Amino acid sequence: MATEVLDPLGRLLAERACERLITEFVRRLDLGVPGDVAELFTPDGLWEWAEGGRRVQGREALRTYFGSRPADRLSRRICTNILVTLTSGSTATATTYFTTYRVDGHTGGMQPPRIPAQVGHYADTFRKTDGEWLLAARSTFLAFAGPTERLGAAVTS
Description:
alpha/beta; 7 strands
């Protein structure tokens, strides 16, 4: 097996690079420029959902998809139980549990607590390309999901 040629430090660095991609993905969606998430994928990268047959493939399609996120969306994703498994010196897989809190229509300020919009897990495949670890594929599996709440217009007196 090709993973045996990696020394313990090499394995640790590869696993950490993949973990960082997972957390950078949600940081860019929640706090950065959502369209920039596409740069974390290989040029032929794929994001698919287990239910509903939704698939977005290719970096340009991913950029368009993530870039179309509503400008007034407030979201925070919490990722836990990240388990990265090297499958070779240049490929890996991971499973990550996530919880998404999300509302549309946000105009500023803190929101009262609410239930999560989604709870599920990601199944990721990574590929090292030109010395850089990237997402080759992400599958989303939702255990719990509901519509994204739309905040009403502020009431003024």
